[in-house]
Amino acid sequence: MATGVLQRVSGGLSRAKSRAQAAGQVVAWSRGFTTSTSINGKDSWFKSLFVRKVDPRKDAHATLLTKNEESNLYKIQFHNVKPECLDAYNKLCEEVLPSIHADKYYPCELVGTWNTWYGDQDQAVHLWRYRGGYPALTEVMNKLKQNPEFTAYRKERGKMLMSRRNQLLLEFSFWNEPVPREGPNIYELRSYQLRPGTMIEWGNYWARAIGYRQHNSEAVGGFFSQIGNLYMVHHLWAYKDLQSREDTRNGAWQQEGWDEVVYYTVPLIQHMDSRIMIPTKASPLQ
Question: Does 142 reside within a domain?
Fold first, then answer.
């Protein structure tokens, strides 16, 4: 199976390179970076990446890539749980997190909560949405400090954890906003550490590429980091099972243009990671 995957990737990249050369583009790879020149002296290939002309000295990545920086802010939490405490941890979260999600007093929503199935074991992943951006996040934090139930939850939770980390994220403008789903589904969180300075490039390719990955409604959400590990991208996908995931991903290679996306975005990546996750009972994404 691995040989077949490599053959598809190799064939796809060769076709993409041939089309690029036929269009008058020469792509040079050097130490993981890409540069390009135009054979016919017209506008460079790099300029053609941009959906609209952007002066990076005047606009932040967040302004260019998201719908409205003040609309939705996301927080993703990774909790590494003591193996013997995972069941108790899940039960504790099921008792507390849905009540915060349902209470309009807090301008936040629980998008999803999962346990990692393949990837880091005994890990919980939570994704929260704050409508109103940073002010909403601050409001929720201040209100939760006054909530005795949440204070008790944090104290009890601390006894069960080995480590934890989080990131603040914005959503890409070209992805749909995550909405609750009926199950059963498995979820894949694909995380990409990009080379500094390549986020705009990534966003412009995926703005066109997302159409190749909508046929089975597998696209859930796409995010990029603002605080935490920077130049980090997270793509969240839903599948019925692992075989459905395999079939869907293989099907993308049959679509004209997908190979070009892979060809041009792979050099932007420093590191990537994949988690297969199972939603917990409290998750709106089932």
Answer: yes
Q: Which pair of structure tokens corresponds to residue 77?
A: 């939490």
How is residue 265 written in tokens? 């975005």
Count: domains in the chain: 2
Is there a single domain that holds both residue 91 and residue 39?
Answer: no
CA angle (270, 111, 92) in 5-degree steps: 105
pLDDT digits (tens, 9 = 90+) for 5-64: 444 545 554 554 555 444 444 343 333 333 333 334 344 434 444 443 434 434 555 656
Are residues 62 and 29 located together in one domain of the fold? no
Asked whether the CA dihedral 98, 99, 104, 106 is positive or negative, the reply is negative
**pTM attached to this predicted model:** 0.79
Q: Are 132 and 17 contained in the same domain?
A: no
Enumerate the β-bridge partners of residue 4: none
226: number of Cβ within 10 Å: 19
Nearest Cα to Cα of residue 135 among 116, 112, 107, 160: 107
Helices (H), the chain: 2-22, 45-48, 61-65, 86-102, 134-145, 148-158, 199-209, 242-252, 258-265
Find the domain containing 9 and state its range.
Answer: 1-48
Domain harbouring 100, CATH code: 3.30.70.100
Is 283 domain-assigned? yes
